[in-house]
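User: Please predict the structure of the protein below. I'd like the answer in structure-token form so I can feed it into my own downstream comparison script.

Assistant: Understood. Taking the following sequence of 379 residues as input:
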Amino acid sequence: MPFTLYQLLWYFFIYAFLGWCLEVVFCTVNSGQWVNRGFLNGPVCPIYGTGMCIVLLVLEPLAGNTLLLFLGSMVLTSALELATGFVLKKAFHTSWWDYSDQPFNIGGYICLKFSLAWGLGGMAAVRLLHPPIARLVDRLPHTAGWVLLGVFGAVLAADLAATLVTLAGLERDLRELEKLGAALRRGSDAVSKELGDAALAADEKLAESGAAVSAKRQEYLALIEPEITGTYRDIASGSETLAIQYEPSFEPEKGLAPVLRESRARDIAAGFCTAGPHREDFSISIDGRAAKVFASQGQQRSVVLSLKMAEAAAAAAITGEHPVLLLDDVLSELDDGRKQYLLTRMREKQTFVTSCDDTAFLKTDGEVYRMNGGVLSRI
């Protein structure tokens, strides 16, 4: 449905402020220190407010069509970014953003990566962010809303004038505007510093939690390592030795925070976190050789069984109750000696084992059932 001037003005100021917050957080995380981002002194980025108003006016009727909404958001916001960047460059001989180092860029004003990001962001804003904002605006008392818009508009106009004067080098003629600009800058600095500190604190908290997760994993691996190595040694009848080692992504004495800071640029380029506990693993070797490279099918199956049985033993030690083991087709690839050990070892535990070959089960004292044609019968 069509928007009123009142609604559009409110949307402009709200999205201009939210865009400024987004820029502050992004630049702070990217640089590692808080940055008061924006063309003006106050806490607004008018390009975001203008862009969202254009997107809403043109694309709000297409909100139900994902593809058109994405493409429309990408094209409209990229066109606005290109035009704004070009005008600012020509008018003031400086750039507030530069994508020259990004692939598929046009004059450094726009690039494919951020155009795709604007498309996704516009789609998410129209579908998820805008509905509650629209409801909030509609609930504001109309008279009070116009008064606030007048105040915001006057401050924005003064801020714009102060910024233009500063950029044009006319500060001496308009010192009052310069003072206003400085006051606005101090205010937005305070807000942006709060946002920046919050972003950095979140990073530190993430590093602290990630280090704790890594430490717990290493602690758990140390708990089950004797059981894993002992079980594998018994399965292999003492002919092979298994070793297991945790591979952390950082040095415990230095902590995870420095690693996250060093990988931030790489993470942004990759689109995901390249360092942290989610990237950690453990390695297994048999007689000093990497199991995942050199182990046979039977050896790999024995390694997996050793891990599962060690986990079951750890669960029993922690909870006081041994879990039920469900092992599907684990006997294939195992020689007779390993099969016999496995079936004998599981005798004291409640275990369900399935196999396409029932001959191995005939050597156990457990209950054996055969499924044939959908009919289950005891052997």
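That's the full token string. The chain has three domains: 5-173, 213-323, 324-379.
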